[in-house]
Write a structure and sequence with these properties.
By secondary structure, the protein is α+β, with helices and mostly antiparallel strands. The protein is built from six helices and 16 strands. The strands form five sheets. The protein has a four-stranded antiparallel beta sheet, with helices on one face. The protein has a four-stranded antiparallel beta sheet with strand order 12-11-13-14. Strands 1-3-2 form a three-stranded antiparallel beta sheet, covered by helices on one side.
């Protein structure tokens, strides 16, 4: 029996969304077809998963275009069918400019220009910025429109083209490794050390639901983190805990991210 939003502890701001997710799940069961949501934030995905798990006759999967996507789409199909990455209606819009004549463009610049075309944020996923270009994950239903109408990002002239997911090789992101000593493996301690933030500031961000562990919202500074956990802080980036070494009886250890 399907559980109610209240019994699943759905966040109030997500209840309208969860009603739509329920409708998608019912459509799958009635029509025996694949159905897909729009892109979900990590907090929305968390509540969506609670709802999806209450439908026992469904198979479901979250995917955002690559295995590290933060904004993801949920796909449903009957439990006698299978769902894979290639089934998702997601394209990449590659936006390129002449680096020699263009000012540097930020995530906000690219996103603002796409939304300026009248596109709803829920139709767009992650935006990956590389040297002089960006790869923007979007729902397939709007990819052609974006490519045909996007000519400027900020004051820069750009060219946009639609690419299928299997035609794009995502360059490795630039990373750096860092080791530091923490008083415990609490989220606020590890995240504060990783992002060079005061304990009070990172606690405020956690309590404001701007910190994610493995793409799930965290609201408790005291949550313990483990090796291989991915910690994201909105507006600051993300880190992966590679190893935890030298733990003592007092829980003092060395985090390697």
């Amino acid at each position: 029996m399907k559980k109610t939003a209240d019994s699943l502890n759905i966040k109030p701001e997500n209840k309208v969304l969860i009603s739509r997710i329920n409708d998608l799940a019912k459509q799958t069961l009635q029509k025996h077809v694949y159905v897909f949501s729009d892109f979900l934030t990590p907090a929305q995905a968390e509540d969506t998963l609670k709802t999806a798990e209450s439908f026992r006759e469904l198979t479901f999967m979250l995917f955002g275009g690559n295995n590290k996507s933060e904004r993801r789409v949920i796909g449903f199909c009957p439990d006698y069918m299978e769902i894979s990455d290639s089934d998702f209606p997601i394209d990449i819009v590659r936006i390129s400019s002449n680096k020699k004549f263009s000012a540097e463009m930020s995530h906000r610049d690219y996103l603002g220009s796409i939304l300026g075309l009248g596109i709803d944020r829920s139709k767009t996923g992650d935006i990956l910025i590389f040297d002089g270009s960006a790869l923007c994950y979007v729902k397939s239903e709007i990819s052609g429109y974006v490519a045909a109408n996007l000519f400027k990002v900020g004051k820069n002239s750009v060219e946009a083209e639609v690419l299928s997911l299997d035609k794009v090789c995502i360059p490795e992101a630039k990373t750096e490794e860092k080791s530091f000593t923490v008083s415990s493996l609490r989220l606020d301690a590890v995240a504060g050390g990783a992002f060079n933030m005061a304990r009070g500031k990172i606690q405020d961000l956690i309590e404001g639901e701007k910190v994610f562990v493995n793409f799930m919202t965290q609201s408790s500074p005291s949550k313990n983190v483990s090796e291989n956990d991915m910690i994201s802080v909105r507006g600051f980036g993300r880190v992966k805990v590679l190893s935890v070494n030298g733990r003592t009886k007092k829980e003092i250890g060395r985090a390697h991210v």
